[in-house]
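# nightly structure sweep
# worker-07 picked up a monomer target from the shared queue
# config: single-sequence mode, recycle default, output format = structure tokens
# input follows
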Amino acid sequence: MIRVPHNRATQLLQARLQDLDSPGVNLDALKSRIQDDIIAIFGQGSNQHLTSIGLDTLHFNKPVEFETCKTRFRQTIQGWIDYIRDFHIIAQETITLSEQEYKKKYEDLLKQWNDLVPEYNQLLTNHESLVPQYDEALSEIKILKDKLDEKQSIGDVIKILFLGASPVDEVRLRIDEEQRDIEKGLRLATLRDHFELKSQWAVTTKTLQQAILDESPTIVHFSGHGDTKGIAVEDSLGNSKLIGNDAIGSLFELFADHIKCVVLNSCYSASQAREISKPVPYVIGMKSSVIDKAAIAFAVGFYTALGAGRDIPFAFKMGVVAVKLEGVSGSDIPVLLG
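# output follows
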């Protein structure tokens, strides 16, 4: 291993050769300078350093021995110079071979690249032609997804069970008008084929249970009287019979696997709505007494929005707005839980 530039190493050793031929040269001093140069060139502990240590020196200035030592010095120094030159030649040849090897690799890679260029250009052309088709496909996928989201907002087929009760001993309600308006709105809806409306009139405790069992509805809509303690159905004589909040909550808990929404379009039904909302995702109730016109307007607005593919929270807001548009009081009475 040569630690200095080759030409600098050669210059140092040639200078020592000149020193060797100088008149009155001191071989001991020259040997010391040679050792310093060898350490600088090859490093301490190298073979060349060990050789420099082993150079003879004179204890007596005998001419014959003096010339013999000078010859040995000269031969050793010249050997080092030749070694450095040979090492330089070998290093240059190694570099040349490496350059040739890398040049060949470069030429091979360049050839492979040139072979791939036509394919790359073709792929680029294909990509440019496919981009518009890809954008068009994305647009169609979005349209289909939007339609699917609309269809699946609360279920694939939405069955509404309308339950009406107007006991003879209570103020008569316009329940039939409410049902007709809801049915009419659904018939005109964009997604009318996804809705099915079933009705049960003069609901009693028994027919209430039987209707839910028979129809397995997605939405249950109750229209009738109520107060803070429960909703009013009819007894066997057509008079009012109150179903308490706890009982109505327990009933809907049994059918929470398929009922997604309950609408209590009756006065003071917020307390029942709170019980039902424990197992059912969405429940709508009324905070206080609500007049017929406001109740009907809310129901029609609510189902009109569902029929257009909107979700329940939006449909609730639509029902509230429908009451306002009707110009009657009561838009602040409906509440949505869930």
